[in-house]
From TrEMBL:
It catalyses: dihydroxyacetone phosphate = methylglyoxal + phosphate. Belongs to the methylglyoxal synthase family. Its EC number is 4.2.3.3. InterPro entries: Methylgl_synth (IPR004363), Methylglyoxal_synth_AS (IPR018148), MGS-like_dom (IPR011607), MGS-like_dom_sf (IPR036914). Catalyzes the formation of methylglyoxal from dihydroxyacetone phosphate. SMART domains: MGS. Substrate binds at H19, K23, T45, G46, T47, T48, S65, G66, H98. This is Methylglyoxal synthase. It is an enzyme of class 4 (lyase). The active site is at D71.
Length: 156
């Protein structure tokens, strides 16, 4: 696979997601970091988005509930280079009916090389990084080059 460089903008597009048992943790983390989050474009799934909108007073773009398609919406945003960071407080100790969706979302974040935080400590590291509030270049798969190579090999 070939790679290309894309520049993440200074004002990031950030998804905030939490499983039911982690919503309070994400809200507390978001309240602590409200000044840092305020200058970014925020997205959240279902109930998490409602809670953050009501409690934070920040503009959080709502998506569907995770099990009803919100995880796939975020995955699509990642694949389309419309999301720069994923803050996903997932619950590793509870069974999730939409576990395959969660795994697919985390896989897409890894494939497209975006920063991912799965708990408050990793989220603290991301938001406190000097790279967080400035443009940042990252490598992503060059899918167009891959398609061209496949088309050329099919023609031969």
């Amino acid at each position: 696979m070939r790679y290309k460089t894309v520049t993440m903008p200074e004002n990031r597009h950030i998804a905030l997601v939490a499983h039911d048992n982690k919503k309070a943790d994400l809200l507390a983390w978001s309240q602590r970091h409200k000044p840092q989050l305020a200058s970014h474009h925020l997205y959240a799934t279902g109930t998490t988005g409602e809670i953050l909108n009501q409690q934070l007073g920040l503009a959080v773009h709502p998506l569907m509930s995770g099990p009803l398609g919100g995880d796939q919406q975020i995955g699509a945003m990642i694949a389309e280079s419309r999301l720069d960071t994923l803050i996903f407080f997932w619950d590793p100790l509870s069974s999730q009916p939409h576990d395959p969706d969660v795994k697919a979302l985390l896989r897409l974040a890894a494939v497209w090389n975006i920063p991912v935080a799965c708990n408050a400590s990793s989220a603290d590291f991301i938001i406190s990084s000097p790279l967080f509030n400035q443009p940042f270049e990252r490598l992503v798969p060059d899918y167009e080059a891959y398609q061209r190579e496949r088309a050329l090999s099919a023609d031969t």
